[in-house]
Amino acid sequence: MMRRGLAVLLMNMLASELGYKIKLITASDEHTNDTLLINNHEGDIQHFSGCDKFEQAVTWLRTKI
User: Fold this and answer.
1) What CA–CA distance (Å, rounded) separates 15 from 24?
2) What does pTM read for this prediction?
3) Which of 16, 34, 43, 62 is deepest in the core (most CB within 10 A)?
4) pLDDT-based confidence at 61, cuts 50/70/90?
5) What is the C-alpha to C-alpha distance for residues 42 and 19, in angstroms, rounded to an integer?
6) What are the CA-CA distances from residue 44 to residues 13, 32, 37, 55 (Å)?
7) Picking from 13-17, 31-35, 44-48, 61-65, which range would have the lowest pLDDT averaged per residue?
8) Where does residue 52 rank: exposed (0-12), middle (13-18), buried (19+ CB within 10 A)?
9) 9 with 54: CB under 8 angstroms?
């Protein structure tokens, strides 16, 4: 749980700094089916899903630095 919390914190910090907005789309009561959508005003959009969606998002955002 601590790893996920750290990933969410890093994701929010990186996204904010890089000008991206984050939206969590909930499909059901199971959080593993949720989709994380990250986009910016220039049309750069990425979708992440699965148990490690937050970690995937941090990895992707780090490539944008």
Assistant:
1) 14
2) 0.82
3) 34
4) very high
5) 10
6) 18, 24, 11, 19
7) 31-35
8) middle
9) no
CA–CA separation, 42 vs 59, rounded Å? 20
pLDDT at 31 over 90: no
Q: Could you read off the pLDDT of 1-10 as tens digits, one per residue? A: 667 788 889 9
The CA distance from 15 to 28, in Å, is 25
Q: Report the C-alpha gap between 2 and 23 in whole angstroms.
A: 21
User: Would you give the end-to-end CA distance of the chain in angstroms?
Assistant: 26
Q: Cα separations (Å) of 52 from 19, 41, 46?
A: 23, 25, 15
